Amino acid sequence: MSFFGVSGMYYSGESLQQHRIVLAEDSNLFSAMVSKRLKELLDIDVIVCRDYDDLQFSVENASFPAKLAISNINLPGAENGEALSYLIDMSVPTIVFTGTFQESTRETILAKDIVDYVIKDSVFAVDMLAESVCRFLTNHQHHVLIVDDSPTARALLTTQLKRYNFRTSSAESGAAALELLKKHPDIGLVITDYNMPDIDGFELTRRIRGAYGPHQLRIIGVSSSANRLLSARFLKAGGNDFMLRPFVNEEFYCRVNQNLDTLTKIQTLGAKISKKA
């Protein structure tokens, strides 16, 4: 199957129909729209739950666990967001699909470690939801290396990336990162801090680029420094992107996605050219 997302995602691979997805949505209109679109684009049949009781029954009495849930913030029987808390407690990765959204709402749902959220505010909302579903179900194909001498920073990024279903490795130094790249040729993205004791982020980026071209992996530099010239130095060293800490969750995930989307397109184009040759 092939899938083109609203934000530029391209997926070409095996069908996703084997995944069990629960849709907790009391609106007949939106549940019908989402069910139809996921079937058309991804060949996925969703299990629709109209209220909190339906949701609990579907999660707890299934022959095999749900891979993903799509849930409104409020459901009949769970008017205060209990459905989201329940899904997280049951370890079901969840995408929020909601029409009511404010800054306080954002902070509340992000605190629950959801996968993503999509707002029902445009004609593209259902397609954006389908893309978010496709990303989660296929992100395991991407291997991301985190390089940072801070155990806390490594743990935070690892947790965040695993929430999105990426495979991850981590290194506490530039030297360790170079060894991991040799052992894991499938690593497609390196996220590296600037300030490290043995090899700083610039030198690590230069060494990586000396061995791996942009068609093999992407590099994102990160730093908590206020020095705005760091981004220019990372890019000149061969990096593809740069972000300042602390990250905004949505921006971080978007930048990771964009870099991996670009890598996928480069590799797909390269494969087509090789076939023609």
Automatic annotation (TrEMBL):
PROSITE patterns per the UniProt record, alphabetical: RESPONSE_REGULATORY
InterPro entries: Bact_response_regulator, CheY-like_superfamily, Sig_transdc_resp-reg_receiver
Top-level division of the source organism's lineage: Bacteria
Domain Response regulatory, residue spans: 20-135, 143-260
Residues with PTM 4-aspartylphosphate: 193
UniProt keyword Ribonucleoprotein present: no
Keyword annotations: Phosphoprotein, Transcription, Transcription regulation
Protein name in UniProt: PleD family two-component response regulator
